[in-house]
Amino acid sequence: MEHYWQEISALTMRWVRRLSREKFSMLFTLVQPMLFWLIFFGNLFQRAADTQVMQAPNYISFLAAGVVVMTVLNNGLAGGVDLLFDKENGFLERLMSTPIHRTSVILSRFIFVMAITSMQVLVILGVSYLFGVEPATGILGVAMILVIGMMFGVGLTAISMAMAFSVKSHGDFFSVLGFLSLPMIFLSSALVPLTAMPGWMSFLAQFNPMTWAIDAVRPLILSGWSEALPHVGMVIIVMLIFDALCLYGGAKAFRRAMG
Amino acid sequence: MDRTVAIDVSRLCKTYDTHKAVDDLSFQVYAGEIFGLLGPNGAGKSTTLRTLITLLHPTSGTATIMGYDSVREADKVRTVIGYVPQERAIDRFLTGREHLQLLGALYHLSKEEATKRIRELLTLVELEAHADRPAKTYSGGMKRKLDIACGLLPDPKILFLDEPTLGLDVQSRLRIWEYVRMLKARGMTVVMTTNYLDEADQLCDRLAIIDGGKIKTMGSPVELKIALGGDIVSLTLKELDRIPALETELKRQPAITSVRTTTKGLDIRVESPEKALPTILESANRLNCSVEFIQYNRPRLDDVFIAHTGRAITESIPEAESA
């Protein structure tokens, strides 16, 4: 157990060091493109969006929940990239030839991605606050948002790592990534509520775990606990199933690549 | 000679779909020797090596490393080996020292122990001055040195080197050879793959020539050369039409093992050049063959390779065999 901890902390430290070596990348990681959605898209559609339809005082307060979950989505889907490069240049092999627990490398990646994602979510909520969006459920609600984000993020990161272990080249990886991310966003309640969507889109969006996450985060920001709790309960169940599936697939891909 | 067996590979096979990457390989590596797996790209060297370091599970057969089974006791195997991968497996953003610190933690060394070993290793591979620079500023040779330091960090009983000098300049290459010899002098067992004949010849105590997933021959470089049956005298003749006559004449001489026609003359394999050379020249004189050029070669490892695989190591593998 002591060894396990030594391995995981050293490997996690490596990801932190890598990030801190790339000053620009660090800056852009924290002030990432998702923020532009909030600032530009949010303000741009302030008057075009119908607050009656949004069920929110203004569009930016509606959009905040979507941007939070979009951040989780993008980080999660990109979470395997570094392992992909490790696999391609042989570093992963070097790590796996040492007497470490087989899960240490993966676990370190989960910890790192979750930590970075949480920080980004806090930055987004902070910027929203500057535009007058105050989470209705307070600090506890923010903590709940982070928990939901992490539950969604674990599954996404597992998908990303499974892809990293399975693809032949990193070109394939990025193609699939680019292909996945936008439809996931449009076919969710991130930008407009399901009720305002064309029927076929809202139908598909129901099967998107992202919709469930947003529908729980949104009342935590806009309404309050009484409205949020049923959604929170629901999203926890959905995410447990989602994570179980993703982790199962990820473990299979990992074993195939390492066996 | 009775020697301790460090690695015992028995009937090892590794199949990918229908392709047999490694086909019924058996060999032993003795403690304290430098053992080479020599063969062209795609011969199955790396697959064999990856099995020995527990990264691949064999389809059938077993590999035992210091008495531990590579699959069932993979954890124990990993504690006694060091590995230097083929690719420059370097994290560009980490410094040399950070690489070693990371591995120190993965081998569960205490901080003090790790610090001490890292200092020794950096001195050994002459990287102290560059230890705190990110690895992306390192030259190819420096990266290779760091690779080797990483492989040595666990103070392994057996060090595995995958193509240790691939793509290096001559100087770095000689430096790496020096390290490997020094490690052997310290009692370490070294297993390496290479597709450089001179490297195998210079460095390895024993080697296995692998082609198409099978061992073609095995032994020390000297044994392998001797087994070919003696030295080669190459004649270049002025009049090419005299070649057949001379060939017939020489084949009758007892001092000569075999004769082979080449484009410009004859390759004559002899047991002892001292006895054979006068005979050859005498026969040539008698038949009025004027010799333009005469060359005498001890067999090189290239010849061994060609004799056992039917082609030079630089020639690509025929489609039929690789498919």
Using the alpha-carbon principal axes, give the shape of chain A: globular
Determine the fraction of residues in helical runs of chain A and give it as a percent range. Answer: over 70%
Strand order of the largest sheet of chain B: 6-7-8-3-9-10
Mean pLDDT of chain B, to the nearest integer, reads 89
Low-confidence stretches of chain A: none
- In the CATH scheme, the class of the largest domain in chain B would be Alpha Beta
- By CATH, the architecture of the largest domain in chain B is named 3-Layer(aba) Sandwich
CATH topology tier name of the largest domain in chain B: Rossmann fold
Calculate the terminal CA-CA distance of chain A, rounded to whole Å.
Answer: 24 Å
Structure summary:
The complex is a heterodimer of chains A (259) and B (323). Chain A has helices at residues 2-21, 23-30, 34-44, 51-54, 59-78, 81-89, 91-96, 104-130, 138-166, 170-186, 199-205, 209-222, 225-258. Chain A is built from 13 helices and no strands.
